[in-house]
Design a protein that fits this description.
Order of helices and strands: EHEHHHEHHEHEHHHEH
Structural class: alpha/beta
Strand content: 5-15%
Mean pLDDT: 96
Low-confidence stretches: none
Number of helices: 11
Number of strands: 6
Largest sheet: 6 strands, parallel
Shape: globular
Bound molecules: 1,4-dihydronicotinamide adenine dinucleotide
Radius of gyration: 19 Å
Helix content: 40-55%
Distance between the termini: 52 Å
Length: about 270
């Protein structure tokens, strides 16, 4: 289904680890819609080598950057602009890492140094990316930046742990920087709040399978697939969404506005005698 929605557009996509990654699927869709892409990920992720397959499929260079390192980000934006021969039209921030989550620390017992690192990688990094682009004036007018979030920013999902704090900060940075970048360059900044999705980052959450099943039953349309999330990102990068900015946009099959579903109630009702 190629409509050339992104013909002539140039973008940086962060976070394609393997073919399950939301960023991987988004890179494929953007390419299908006519965009030119630079792929980026942390040096440790690049060593896995998977990203080279994607790079080959879409003819994109891979430029490593630890998203917590300003020098890496500056180099990434410089090299991307040199590659494209001009400014960047869109950026996907598809990055998350919970250190306390990974080390099995309960929310009430978190290690604060790890928490700082979690917030830096998963949320402040969006500020770092926007700041780098801002200082270099690297984004085109009406450019579009999208980061991925989760509804734990608004509601409690106990096992989502410190990542809830990270997502709340990510959404706040989206609004605050979105304001300034909108005024200066008409650049748009939004988060997409995605259904639970089976990826490497997703599966790191305790009890993830139950999480996915519950959300599936609670969502009138069922859980949104990674591929559909990729389509939504294409729309947000395109000129069809020019006046959408500073928003947290739920892409979750209706989960966020459902109080309870018949499927959940049926699962709780004891069988009739
Ligand atoms: P993923 O594991 O494929 O992607 C996470 C990416 O973050 C990886 O490519 C990893 O290398 C990158 N990353 C980690 N530390 C980094 C650093 N210091 N510098 C640069 N990159 C770094 O998993 P997924 O699910 O595709 O995650 C993408 C985004 O979607 C994350 O923000 C995640 O929180 C969000 N999300 C995921 C959901 C899910 O259920 N999988 C649901 C809602 C949002």
């Amino acid at each position: 289904m190629a409509n050339n929605l992104l013909a002539g557009k140039k973008g940086i996509i962060f976070g394609a680890l393997d073919e399950k990654s939301i960023a991987w699927k988004t890179a494929l869709k953007c390419h299908e819609q006519g965009a030119q892409i630079v792929l980026s990920n942390a040096p440790v992720a690049l060593r896995m080598g998977e990203i080279n397959k994607l790079a080959e499929m879409i003819g994109a260079p891979v430029i490593g950057a630890d998203v917590t390192n300003m020098d890496d980000l500056k180099k990434l934006f410089e090299e991307s602009q040199a590659h494209f021969g001009g400014k960047i039209d869109f950026v996907l921030h598809s990055i998350g890492m919970g250190i306390n989550v990974r080390k099995g620390k309960h929310y009430t017992e978190m290690n604060y140094e790890w928490h700082q690192k979690t917030l830096d990688i998963s949320a402040t990094s969006l500020h770092r990316v926007l700041r780098t682009a801002w200082d270099m004036d690297a984004l085109s007018e009406w450019g579009s930046v999208v980061a991925l979030s989760y509804i734990a920013a608004q509601r409690v999902f106990p096992d989502y742990n410190e990542m809830a704090d990270a997502k709340a900060l990510l959404e706040s940075i989206t609004r605050s920087f979105g304001y300034h970048y909108g005024v200066r360059n008409k650049v748009r900044v939004n988060t997409v709040s995605q259904s639970p999705t089976r990826t490497t980052a997703g599966s790191g959450v305790k009890g993830f399978d139950a999480f996915v099943d519950y959300a599936e039953k609670m969502s009138p349309l069922g859980n949104a697939l990674a591929e559909d999330c990729a389509n939504y990102c294409v729309f947000l990068f395109s000129d069809l969404s020019r006046y959408i900015t500073m928003q947290n946009l739920f892409h979750d099959g209706g989960f966020s506005f459902t109080g309870v579903s018949e499927a959940i109630v049926a699962g709780m009702t004891p069988p009739a005698e």
